[in-house]
Write the structure tokens for this entry.
Amino acid sequence: MTRRDEVLDHAVRLFPVPEDGLTRLYERRARRQRQRRAVVVATVVALWAAIALILVVANDDRGSVPVTTPSVTKQAGVTTLPVTITESDELPSTFPNDVPLPDGVVPVASYTSEDTVTVWFSSESSPRALQRFYQRELAAAGWTSFDSGSVAGVWEERVTSDGRSATLLGKESGATRLIHGSDVYDGEWDLFIHVGGV
């Protein structure tokens, strides 16, 4: 019982109120309590909906969910799918020339398919320095950013250019959030670039 209800009960005891007036007072009180309950229920439902939306966005179809495929086999730090991952310090020949690479990045693994190329790099630069480099240099190279962010030690930049799309990821050492198939390669990496439409 709220303080207001206590005061109302006390006032009714001190000042006699006709029976129909008392009924109206109690009906008004009951109506206010129902309204308060409705507001609380609506708030709880809205919070749960917001949480559900956040979870959906965090695990959207752009690859935020770790890749699991029944045919995955792992050998010597490499996961193989219908494509073959090559551990090499050379860029694949299909890697686009207009995707800038900062000084000090070295390819560690890659795979290509009919219209995509994916490369994992090692780098001496910090994840934040890599992110700043790509935010600046991709625009200068003609790429348009349509999504970017940073969560749980992983930054992500999504860009498009001439009908192609690219996803770039950088991660801090030990970061475990996996996006866009970057977890397919089990080796150590600092920068992940996936380009579609090549």
